[in-house]
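Task: sequence in, structure out. Protein: Carboxypeptidase Q.
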Amino acid sequence: MHRRTFLSLTPAIAAFAQGRPNLTELYGSAAARLIAAAQADDGGWKKMMYLCDRIGNRLAGSSSLNRAVEWSAAEMKREGLQNVKTPLVKVPHWVRGEESAWMVEPLESKIVMLGLGGSVATPPEGITAEVVVVSTFEELEQLGAEKVRGKIVLYNEAWQGYGRSVAYRAAGASRAAKLGAVAALVRSVTPVSLRSPHTGQMIYTEGVEKIPTAAVTIEDALRMHRLYQQGVKIRVRLKMEAKTLADADSANIIGEIPGREKPEEIVVMGGHIDSWDVGQGAQDDGSGCVACWQAIMLAHQLGLKPRRTLRVCLWTNEENGTRGGQAYREWAGATVKNHVAAVEMDGGAEKPAGFGLSIQGASEEVMVRAMERMQQIGALLKPVGADNMIRGGGGADIGPIMRDGVPGIAHRSSGQRYFEWHHTDADTLDKIDPQEFRQNIAALAVVGYVLADMPEKLTD
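Result:
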């Protein structure tokens, strides 16, 4: 989720507005048409049903991701988007295989787990070892190698928000391996659990032995923590068949409404078409892909052809490599300088809240001017409650072009339950409210169209 900083319209911003067209007034009619069309739309929901129920989860390297790429490109062409392309992207190919975890002492009991993406396998017979439980990296270091060597380390770090807690998922294995641990378990990075484990990417430190690592549920982590605090010896048997194969072929999917006056200037918006290999990848990030795609389709269906090119991109491999975003920057080449804005939706399709803006390297004067324009666009979004415009935005897939100075805009939702479903078997279509989904489409449609049609660029 994105940092929220609330801004008011300052005198300085008002000064910049003098002599410039007011976007709220200029696009009131077009925004109303787009919002009405989005609220009555069923095309986006039909796409979501197909993607989730007939294709399913879409991990990089999988046949289901390939099917999603082929289906998306074919649908864009059928619907009349132009310049539909699928530029090749080489992506990592990690395969989960069979996996299990059991407590074998002080009692025989199943541990509900999911291997973390990128993990190595255990030996075929598994690893059976005593468990030490820590809540922080500092506690691990205090134990030292003497108490960690030959053990399985369990990180029972309570939810501190995704940005902080994800560090244990990412770095926990290598931190434990440095002290001689034979495996690492991580309490799932989530505030709420119904004994549901959350997978996600982990990263091995170069030069440190690679040990298998998996996420366990909050309930199992707390149970082991209680036993450990009582001085009860805990032994766990972990089996994982995970492996990393040679890089596989995938693709970004691109479609456009070419600009009527300045087709060389581009507003790109999208989400990531890949997901983890559990659930249906509905909230993360089928919703972002389809909402951005349908937002552009509504402009097309209403005959609203903007000054600049309005492009949708469904990026591949955000989850375990971000190769899609990197490949898009390389594919864009010198045309990156013609991108006037990039919009990413990757926080789920709960009730929309607004958008966040970042422009790397921009002066305060430019940021003030850009924020004034974003707030004028925000005023158009009050009917769907997405009118809060803040500083601070971007995303993993648009990050590479943001480093070239392209304004990055993050779609923001309420995010009330997103991390309950994130990276789990529960990330399924039923977790999305259809009306809230349509509100997100409406917000994206207005933002995308106005950015592509406004007389001046955000940074002018």
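The domain at 97-241 is CATH 3.50.30.30 (Glucose Oxidase; domain 1).
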